[in-house]
Amino acid sequence: MRTLLALLLALLIAVGLVWFLAGRAAGPAITLGAPTTLVGQKTDLKLDVFAPGGVVTALDVSLEQGGTAMPMGSLATPQGLAITPAADRVAVTGVIGRQTAPSLKTGPATLVVNATRPVLFGLRQVSSTFRKDLQVRLTPPTVTVLSQFHFINQGGAEVVVYQVNPADVPSGVRVGDREYPGMAASGAGIPNAAPGLRVAFFPFLFNQAASTPVSLWARDEAGNAATASLDSKVTAKQFRKSTIPLDDAFLQKVVPAILQNTPDLVVKDANDLLASYLVINRDLRKANNETIRTLGRTKTAKEILWRGPFRQMMNSAVEAGFADDRTYTYQGKAVDQQVHLGFDLASTQNAPILAANRGVVIFAGFLGIYGNCVIVDHGMGLQSLYAHLSSIGVQEGQTVEMNGELGRSGQTGLAGGDHLHFTMVLHGEFVTPVDWWSVQWIEDRVMRKLRAAGAPAPQAP
Ligand SMILES: [Zn+2]
Description:
Helices cover 17% and strands 42% of the residues. It is built from five helices and 33 strands. It has helices at residues 2-23, 248-261, 273-298, 434-437, 439-452; strands at residues 30-34, 38-39, 43-50, 58-65, 68-74, 81-85, 89-96, 107-119, 124-136, 142-145, 150-153, 157-165, 171-175, 178-181, 183-184, 197-203, 214-219, 225-229, 232-235, 241-246, 317-320, 324-330, 333-340, 343-346, 352-354, 359-366, 372-379, 382-389, 391-392, 399-400, 405-408, 420-426, 429-431. The strands form eight sheets. Strands 21, 24, 26, 27, 28, 30, 32 and 33 form an eight-stranded antiparallel β-sheet that branches. Strands 2-9-8-4-5 form a five-stranded mixed β-sheet, with helices on one face. A four-stranded antiparallel β-sheet has the order 1-3-7-6, with no helix packed on it.
């Protein structure tokens, strides 16, 4: 009898201990993705709540202001929120702000999130609370165009100078469904620029119709947005059509070399040269252009690094122009179609390849169809690209002056013979280099606008 009592007592103590320890388990970890600073009329919310099995028993989101809590949604009443369980987390997305809480006023507020998860087979609950101080901003920003005469060539680039208020709001240019960022005017050599003065270099894609609308945008984290129309004239361009006949000698020359340098590329049968070529010409081209796009958007200086017109390769013959529409044929039949987004410039074999202008090398290596390739950043979204090199003489991070040697011409990648494939890239998009080679275009389209905004006139030599 005494043994039984002792056992019972031990069991009670054990159960109590487990109960006590379960209650001390950590509550759900709450991580806020957005917003980080501002909340407005309709602000995107992104929360991640850690909960094993994706199970929460309670979850609520509110905004607190002046001692009043305004509910934004909960597990029981989601309102504008979507609460989605995943493996070991619960994702909370949706909109918060004044739309849900009409009494929300401009000024400080606190985002409060409470979450509860079950422990001990659901017999106990553990909770946690997350708080984040935010500012309520309800008025939209303003954006005003300051520069004049915006003439855009289809497939080319243009510049606009504008003012955004407040100065901390992201802004830029929208062309159709594409958005490009504006940057602080101090980066364009404008001294004592007003805080919200911006300069945006932007591309007008070769495949966007000349009627595509161009406007300015500004949008804060709270979701307050503004647009301004840009008075501009777009000139449609005729792009050439060309035919590239593929033969076995060419396929034998380029396909195995590219496959060898690109182990990640999957082809069905490496011995089927035409099929492998088509994978390279379509899929690898797409992947390479995506790499260039990412570099263009992420690796650019905040200030203009270039000086004066860009330099064209000396004594070179133009073999192909920008945006030539190429049909590839094999044994007389069309097998592929791609757009050639650059200039092919041929000189002598192993000719020195010189930087078209001052900048920083942001890529130097093998890049699929482009072979050995160098990309130079010239700042504020502008870059130049040099492809098919036989050798590379620079390293990433290196500053190069205009005419600094980058390497030697060659025929690596998708190249039939020794030539330089050259193009300009703006915010990751290919634009024709013709404009950037032109003294007149640089003066009319860029320097005139920067001087009108306060940039100093160039010193007489
Ligand atoms: Zn080319």
